[in-house]
Design brief:
The protein is of the alpha+beta class and 285 residues long. It is built from six helices and eight strands. The strands form two sheets. Strands 1, 2, 3 and 6 form a four-stranded antiparallel β-sheet that branches. Helix 1 packs antiparallel against helix 2. The protein is elongated.
């Protein structure tokens, strides 16, 4: 689908063409009107002895010619504005469709420093409904493995939301990003979806030339994301240090278990029974 910038560019070019045509028609009309007036004045001056009836006839001809020219100019102006209004309506409809149109794309995010995932993400402005996809992993001849397909379906994929798929080699072993071009020649996403207006559209996204992609990442020395497991381990170490610092406080850190809670409830019940027993008649002092 064409972007709003492309619509604005096309609309500007069309308006310029229509403006030139409108000015051309108006200019030709004025030249024609001027020519008719000059020709009529010349004919009237060339026949000074003509009768009043003949003069009136010529004047009526001049008026008819002027009216014809005005009608032509009015018709041309009407056509011009009609075309402009239709163009504006088309632009508004296209802009409205763009705001609700989803766009499903492929991405290869890193999972730690060595592995990658295949991510299906909605990068459009509108939600995708009734998404039916086939993820095709086309194997290289050197890998000796067949091309595999995975089907995935979801009733809704909101803007910015995604679904990740693992990239596995023989025996279900994850494929590292450096071995990705050795195992697969390209990854393709095929399917259909519907937008918020009920319009159905096809999906055909391809990530090809994976070897060039890996080479560019290595040559660019791009920073890889932090390993989530390593980050989680660092967080646990920080929690451990915090708990140890709490133990330095007077009394330390007291953990309340279920046994402590049951013991406290039993003591409260015993005290309540003792108070009830003391308030009975004949048991007081």
């Amino acid at each position: 689908m064409t972007s709003p910038k492309g619509w604005a560019k096309q609309a500007g070019a069309s308006r310029r063409v229509l403006l030139v045509l409108g000015l051309g028609v108006a200019g030709l009309s004025l030249l024609f009107l001027l020519a008719v007036l000059v020709l009529t004045a010349w004919r009237v001056g060339a026949l000074p002895s003509q009768s009043t009836t003949e003069t009136a006839t010529q004047l009526q001809g001049i008026i008819a010619a002027v009216n014809l020219v005005l009608v032509v100019v009015l018709a041309a102006t009407t056509v011009y504005y009609a075309i402009q209004n239709k163009r504006m309506a088309d632009e508004m409809r296209s802009a409205r469709e763009f705001t609700v149109h989803p766009r499903i794309a492929l991405d290869l995010p890193f999972l730690g420093p060595f592995y990658v995932l295949v991510r299906v993400v909605n990068v459009g402005l509108g939600p995708a409904f009734d998404v039916r996809l086939r993820l095709v992993f086309e194997a290289t001849p050197a890998s000796g493995r067949p091309t595999t397909e995975r089907e995935w379906r979801t009733p809704l994929l909101a803007p910015g939301h995604h679904q990740d798929f693992d990239v596995s080699g023989p025996g279900g072993v994850p494929v590292t990003f450096t071995d990705l071009p050795k195992e697969f020649s390209r990854i393709r996403l095929i399917g259909t979806m519907s937008d918020g207006l009920g319009n159905s559209s096809s999906i055909d996204e391809t990530m090809s030339d994976l070897a060039d992609w890996v080479q560019r990442i290595n040559s660019a020395e791009a920073l890889l994301p932090i390993d989530h497991l390593e980050k989680a381990a660092d967080s646990l170490e920080e929690i451990k240090r915090t708990v140890k610092s709490w133990s330095a406080i007077s009394g330390g850190l007291r953990v309340r278990t279920d046994q402590d809670l049951a013991r406290e409830m039993e003591n409260a019940r015993r005290r309540r029974d003792e108070m009830v027993e003391q308030d009975r008649p004949g048991t007081g002092q």
